[in-house]
């Protein structure tokens, strides 16, 4: 029989105010992530354990790999191309021009190269903000932008099913993980429905990723955990607790994508809270250890 145990390790101690958007870069064995209010994009080399960073001129909420090399990022209300070598950001498109208090939040690239990202009003405190100000957009490979819907509170986690026929999406303050039918040819979404409603102790759904079995992993802000969901049955399959409360997002990475990386926030925790969770703002690695028992 096989039993699995989980090991959780803080690979980079609390240096993020609001860590987000973990992305594994296979070519360099590195984890990319952002610290939104610190306006930093970071790249942590898992072999040397060194961190390189690039500072931009507005809150940076997501980063993604660009096929032609370099990265793309959502900075303020702009989709930008990043050049790591000369530390420059080139604006590709701007959204929400009429909403001065808005910024982008979570973003991810679909299998056809469209960069999906949603916006939100700037928070006055975690999860405190003017409601219904956000929208969901995508930047197409030809750099035109399409808007899908508005009235979003906190546009957050997103990913696609393994067959690319479903788009999963979280608007945090709906406390729901939603699904849409997805047309990879056109980038159109339709038929919105909820596949999971968070339980009270799970708190606020934030970043999300999909695993090799098509199950969803959702980071629960204030819940100090990532949860594994079966979007077909609407059941929670697993809960992995972390030693920090403000878990924001997760992605797979490492050798054969066998590890999970989790980001979290330090902002919004009082001094006593920080004594209880000194690693808040760190980067965590979750490792599954399989024990093969014979007999
Ligand atoms: O990480 C993010 O996605 C937001 O930018 C954060 O501000 C939190 O998620 C939010 O406060 C809780 O929903
Ligand atoms: Zn988020």
UniProtKB/TrEMBL annotation:
Gene Ontology process terms (BP): L-ascorbic acid biosynthetic process
Cross-referenced InterPro entries: 6-blade_b-propeller_TolB-like, Regucalcin, SGL, SMP-30
Residues at the catalytic site: 206
Keyword Ligase: no
Cofactor annotation: Ca(2+); Zn(2+); Mg(2+); Mn(2+)
Transmembrane annotation, as ranges: none
Reaction(s) this enzyme catalyzes, per UniProt: D-glucono-1,5-lactone + H2O = D-gluconate + H(+)
Domain SMP-30/Gluconolactonase/LRE-like region: 18-265
Keywords on record: Calcium, Cytoplasm, Hydrolase, Metal-binding, Zinc
Protein name in the entry: Regucalcin
Gene this chain is encoded by: RGN
